[in-house]
Hints:
The chain is α/β, with parallel strands linked by helices. The chain is built from 13 helices and nine strands.
Amino acid sequence: MLSDGAQVLQPRAYDGDLGLGFKSQFAIVNGVKLHFVEGGEGQRTVVLIPGWPQTWYAWRKIMPDVANTYHVVAVDIRGMGESSRPESGYDTETLANDISALMDKLGISRYSVVGHDIGMWIAYSLAAKHGAQIDKLVVSEAFIPGVSPTPPMLQPPEKNAGLTQFMFNQLRDLPEFLVAGREASYLRWNVEHRAYWPDRVAVDEYIRAYSVPGAMRAGFEYYRAIPLTMHQNQELKKRKLIMPVLAIGAAFASGETTVATMKSVSDNVKSKIVAQCGHYIPEECPGEFLNELMPFLAE
């Protein structure tokens, strides 16, 4: 089910092994050019929203299986991957509105949404603000600013390693100055300190994507928008979510924090903690992720 009115690209080399008619495409929504990879011929749609520092490619290991049953749309949110990088609009309400507008443009009125890391932030905002559109919500590996308790800053270094981006990335200008020309080192450090199986994460692809001029700045903007995101979520959490929720955490990462966060905003949560897995569950442990995802979507 390919979109109407979207610009079709020639598939990149890393698209080719997905099969099932997956194509890279663009659509203009809210004045922003969004890139997405679309495939599968199912009647029901599943939207995949990646985290930072990743791109749509974070979903490559699960997309073929999901597309055997569903129409799949894996999105590069504004500022990410092949999407444009505007100066503003990196709060999760704006990012969620982009996804909603993209689905409207594709003529899709109802869909399930799967979000990982900051994709979980966006998926929550989308479900809370546009709940009538969302069949099911699946989230993995994050706490949500303004919903979850704020993690303590003064704790052992091994615990803070997975949270450094929240402090560092929010700073104005300094991250760009320090990371310029060192993108590979910075991104590898992030992956190695958050993954249990770092060799299963496509860090070379993310280095390619984030070494493009302006890409790191855009990535930092998600974190600089956290104060606005928190304000938005403090209002959204006053109302419980109306759709079924699946929360997946990793034993060697956020774990129960992901589950507790969703139970605070929903009375209909299924959960799973994946053993022997780090933060990047769809890449590190795709089989376990699919074992939870597919039955939940089919219910």
